[in-house]
Amino acid sequence: MLYREAGQFKTNYRADMAVFPILQDRIGVFLILLVAFAVIPFVGSNFFLHAIMIPFLIFALATIGLNILTGYTGLLSLGTGGFMGVGAYACYKLATVFPEVHILVWVVASGFVSAAVGVVFGLPSLRIKGFYLAVATLASQFFLSWCFIRIPWLVNYNVSNAIEVPRRSLFGIAVTGPDATPQARYLVVLTVVVAMTWIASNLVRGRIGRMWMAVRDMDIAAELMGIRLLNTKLLAFAVSSFYCGVAGALLVFLYYGSAEATAFSINQSFAVLSMVIIGGLGSLVGSFMGAALIFTLPILLPHIMAALGIPIQSATAEQISFMVVGALIIFFLIVEPHGLARLWQIAKQKLRVWPYPY
Amino acid sequence: MRAPDDTTIKAGQTLLSVEDVSLSFGGVKAIRGVSFDIKKGEIRAIIGPNGAGKTSMLNVINGFYHPQEGQITFKGVKRRKMRPHDAATGGIARTFQNVALFRSMTTLDNIMAGRTLKMHSNFFWQLWRYGPAEREEIEHRHKVEEIIDFLEIEHIRRVPVGRLPYGLQKRVELGRALAMEPELLLLDEPMAGMNLEEKEDMCRYIIDVNNHFGTTIALIEHDMGVVMDLANRVVVLDYGQKIADGTPDEVKANQAVIDAYLGVAH
User: Fold this and answer.
1) ipTM score of the complex?
2) What is the pTM of this model?
3) Nearest-CB residue to A218 (from B101, B117, B126)
């Protein structure tokens, strides 16, 4: 590493248990946040903000949600798309029925709706594990997708059968709807994602995170230590679905602008799951890395190819990115199941001792 | 770390007793009508040949298996069967024959996880890791560091336990059980697969736990030298039945025990 912890002695456990115990890390994170909040919105083009940064952050949030369930608690879920949809439709219903209430209140409230639905579909997790649980969550995905298509009440009986996001504003500036600027939307998304990432890091580092990981690593020992398996798993389902629900609401209100049920199909579940796997199971940083890689790859690929002198059409690029993502997943499953986050750790470790091998 | 206050049961009184416990899995009778007691403050060994039902007995005591017959009295409360959560809150901790640590968590997190039941700050504070949640985390870290100190595993504090050698894993597992501040500590073959030096270390820790914290210990072990030295009383199981019960010397001289271990022509 370019820096190390040498000379930074901890004199109390509070400092020792901090998220970033090393000073240079704290400075680095501060700089990243500074750039994200104060530089990108003013320097980045509308395309960069709207097509890359906003969806990247939202998918990172959904990835954190699934990571809490799959990475930290060890419960495989294929229902992420459905839970995101619950958040989106709940937010739409709430925002149109009570238009005078602040939109961010409804984004958070839709997370709670999604959490409740997640708990219901999480109930079988006490009895079934692994692939069988994945199939059970797959059923929830199909059931929820069916609801989105077949229950017109969810979209206020729109003829298009789609969510049409109304205009809502924050401090007098439009943040949703057609006339919201990418800058405003980006800042709202960034604030929500940063706050929720911080909360997730608090949870996974504390008692609750240890309970989740204990259940993941050795559920029998966890149970005999007095950890109630059902409660712990349901809490993981609730928190995970909350994150996915908020991500779904943000996705529709601040990115798509309007959405049909297909936006929350099984494909979305697989996309988020591959972000979790490639980013790193059980890592919050990995969630961002995975979302960045999987989401930006199809967008950047044509540009990279063009730069290499191989012009390709966007349809071809999409096909190629499917292949690349598939190959990457297989590569990671074989070579480094802990994903980009582990590679990042290994790289840091190697740099620390460089130029010596160990 | 100190022994939990318990005014109701004093040293030498019965802490736990099992009466006429029978456990079967389908047609296989693992335990047949076994009764014995564990007195507070003692080291009680459970021995017997392989498949005698020793581990099943521990599983019955901490509620992982539910016996078909019999009853279990723990701290004066008579039960048909234990439940894992009741056993844990009541102060029964255990280690496992095959190390059952949380492999991808660090030593520190494993032992911190052992204190889950002692931590009470609610979800709201946990979200912000502030106020009670943070205070509690630091307070329990102190206790955990005492255990780490006691077991001399400071150097592996931040190492994921999956990467540790077997002997150290066993020690971390003991640490995790101690973190629960148990009244009754069940040790399932704590010295299996260890070399002599590691065995001696482990024996010292067991004696220290028993002496300093007054923790009652039930111990399954195959090394007879260890059992005879450590245990105050020994119960011998064979084919799910109790064949002897008494001090190490009595058990050693018991003909049924000798037959069970050496085999006898019927």
Assistant:
1) 0.91
2) 0.92
3) B101
